[in-house]
């Protein structure tokens, strides 16, 4: 039987990064993955394929709607070849997952393909291609998550689908009804809207992206409405039924009336749930809580001291970079180091266009906590760079402590915000004040100047260009 210092179960961004860091720190490491490709949800059916389709559909929208503004004329009709778009996406996925195979070899990590389950706290049974048993002093559970569903919905995975199927459709829907105006619903909704589908978003709460700053929800809602998406807020879905090629969704509105939507596809995107099925956690004494999460303490240690858990299967945001940070955290803890994660500074990004990005506290959270704060906001339309490229929607908003000027939250919507948020994270990691940000130089002309201007606006209302 092969013995290891560490065995990692699950090869998503949590698991494979944990394995690399363990190996870098001199531990003999094994990685167990039930699928034949590494990379988990993120690389196979999550972050990477969704961004590939967002990019392709964005190019199409630029070509059909915006090239003309730039004086670019394309003779003849511009068409979408969905088969080609989807196969390009798959090629991007294959290249990316292949890259993880390379990284595992480079770091001398033994990869086992098969379902891993606990025999006890130090032994893992593997069922599948590399069937057998391994022993490990320490084990990291990184088994990720799966799409959630509503109890009354039968997912047929043809017309009533999750994000996994939405990433490989064979036709452009005529009318896609999306249940849930969260990250997945909006990203994939925008993909199919751009490709020509009618899109209806049915959301239970009174706004899209209900956990983000309300200012961002409002601005993105405007963008979706401008694109002629139907945005049905405060609608509680009651039933979803398929009749032939038609899908009928019924929802109750605020007045208690039943509203009916008819389409040809229904995307169910109401969140994800931790995945621990088949793991036999009980055999190792690992406690799963009533939300289905592996229970962990502040060291990400489970109820069994040599077993740790990270990523989507534990509490906290279900984000790839959060999973990665936790993978590094556990590896360094096992090596006797004292790592740290500030969960308040894990940024959240929605890759629609304009992009939405945030870090730190929202206005709603500051109000609820009774924190006195000031706001500095700057619109992209006032920037030369934004006008030059024609991406003028959105703003940067900085929330700073009223008395100390420390930045407490940064919320932005606009072109390239997914990358701009890194500046805000850095500033907040170093506990910068709004004035600090306003005093360092930002290259001109860039979108980043909006961050400086918002910081100036928060510092005694002294933005320069508005
Ligand atoms: P996962 O990536 O889910 O990996 C878990 C792995 O464990 C899987 O490969 C699974 O097969 C394997 N496994 C499970 N049980 C066993 C077992 N018993 N034995 C062996 N193997 C097992 N996040 C972002 O930060 N940015 C984005 O842009 C983004 N976009 C997304 C888009 C979509 C459509 C979706 C669905 C998700 C997106 N996410 C995004 C979320 C992101 O994918 C997850 O947060 C991330 O993948 C979690 O990583 P993880 O390592 O915890 O788990
Ligand atoms: P989500 O939690 O972002 O959104 C789910 C939405 O569904 C919420 O707005 C919620 O109010 C709504 N909802 C719940 N029950 C409902 C009901 N009965 N009727 C109508 N609406 C209902 O979840 P998601 O969009 O499915 O994404 C799942 C996870 O994947 C998220 O945690 C997210 O962090 C991650 N993800 C991240 C990215 C990214 O970082 N860009 C992209 C995709 C997914």
In short:
By secondary structure, the chain is an alpha/beta fold. It folds into three domains: 2-146 and 273-341, 3-Layer(bba) Sandwich (FAD/NAD(P)-binding domain), CATH 3.50.50.60; 160-270, FAD/NAD(P)-binding domain (3-Layer(bba) Sandwich), CATH 3.50.50.60; 345-458, FAD/NAD-linked reductase, C-terminal dimerisation domain (Enolase-like, domain 1), CATH 3.30.390.30. It contains 13 helices and 22 strands.
Any key phrases for this structure?
binds flavin-adenine dinucleotide; 25% strand; binds nicotinamide-adenine-dinucleotide; FAD/NAD(P)-binding domain; 466 residues; single chain; Enolase-like, domain 1; 5-stranded parallel β-sheet; alpha/beta; 22 strands
Task: Tell me the layout of helices and strands.
Layout: E1 2-9, H1 13-24, E2 29-33, H2 40-45, H3 47-66, H4 82-106, E3 110-113, E4 115-120, E5 123-127, E6 132-141, E7 145-147, E8 160-161, H5 163-166, E9 175-179, H6 183-194, E10 198-202, H7 214-226, E11 230-232, E12 236-243, E13 246-252, E14 258-263, E15 265-268, E16 272-274, E17 307-309, H8 320-334, E18 348-350, E19 355-360, H9 363-369, E20 373-379, H10 384-389, E21 395-401, E22 407-414, H11 417-429, H12 434-439, H13 449-458
Parallel strand pairs: 1-2, 1-6, 2-3, 6-17, 8-15, 9-10, 9-15, 10-11
Antiparallel strand pairs: 4-5, 5-6, 7-16, 12-13, 13-14, 18-19, 19-22, 20-21, 21-22
The protein binds flavin-adenine dinucleotide and nicotinamide-adenine-dinucleotide.
């Amino acid at each position: 039987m092969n013995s290891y210092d560490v065995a990692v179960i699950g090869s998503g961004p949590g698991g494979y990064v944990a394995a690399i860091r363990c190996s870098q720190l001199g531990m003999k490491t094994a990685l167990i993955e039930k699928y034949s490709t590494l990379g988990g949800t993120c690389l196979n059916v999550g972050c990477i394929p969704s961004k590939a389709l967002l990019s392709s559909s964005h190019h199409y929208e630029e070509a059909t709607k915006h090239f003309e503004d730039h004086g670019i004329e394309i003779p003849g009709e511009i068409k979408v070849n969905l088969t080609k778009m989807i196969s390009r996406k798959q090629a991007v996925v294959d290249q990316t997952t292949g890259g993880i195979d390379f990284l595992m070899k480079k770091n001398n990590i033994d990869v086992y393909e098969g379902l891993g389950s606990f025999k006890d706290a130090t032994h893992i049974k593997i069922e599948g291609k590399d069937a057998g048993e391994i022993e490990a002093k320490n084990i990291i559970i990184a088994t990720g998550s799966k799409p959630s569903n509503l109890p009354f919905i039968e997912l047929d995975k043809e017309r009533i689908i999750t994000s996994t199927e939405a990433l490989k459709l064979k036709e452009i829907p005529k009318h896609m009804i999306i249940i849930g105006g969260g990250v997945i619903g909006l990203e994939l909704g925008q993909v199919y809207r751009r490709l020509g589908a009618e899109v209806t978003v049915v959301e239970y709460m009174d706004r899209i992206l209900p956990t983000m700053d309300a200012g961002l929800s409002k601005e993105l809602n405007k963008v979706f409405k401008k694109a002629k998406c139907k945005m049905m807020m405060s609608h509680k879905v009651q039933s979803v039924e398929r009749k032939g090629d038609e899908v009928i969704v019924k929802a109750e509105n605020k007045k208690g009336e039943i509203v009916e939507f008819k389409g040809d596809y229904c995307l169910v995107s109401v969140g994800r749930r931790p995945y621990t099925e088949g793991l036999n956690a009980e055999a190792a004494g690992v406690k799963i809580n009533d939300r289905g999460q592996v229970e962990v303490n502040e060291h990400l240690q489970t109820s069994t001291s040599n077993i740790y858990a990270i990523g989507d299967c534990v509490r906290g945001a279900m984000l790839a970079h959060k999973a990665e940070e936790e993978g590094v955290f556990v590896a360094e803890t096992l090596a006797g180091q004292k790592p740290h994660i500030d969960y308040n500074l894990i940024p959240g990004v929605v890759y629609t266009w304009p992009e939405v990005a945030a870090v730190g506290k929202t206005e709603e959270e500051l109000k609820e906590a009774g924190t006195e704060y000031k706001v500095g906001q700057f619109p992209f339309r006032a920037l030369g760079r934004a006008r030059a490229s024609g991406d003028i929607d959105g703003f940067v908003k900085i929330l700073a402590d009223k008395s100390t000027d420390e930045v407490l939250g940064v919320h932005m919507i606009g072109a390239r915000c997914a990358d701009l948020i890194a500046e805000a994270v850095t500033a907040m990691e170093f506990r910068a004040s709004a004035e600090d940000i306003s005093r360092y130089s930002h290259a001109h002309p860039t979108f980043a100047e909006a961050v400086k201007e918002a910081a100036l606006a928060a510092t005694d209302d002294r933005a320069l260009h508005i």
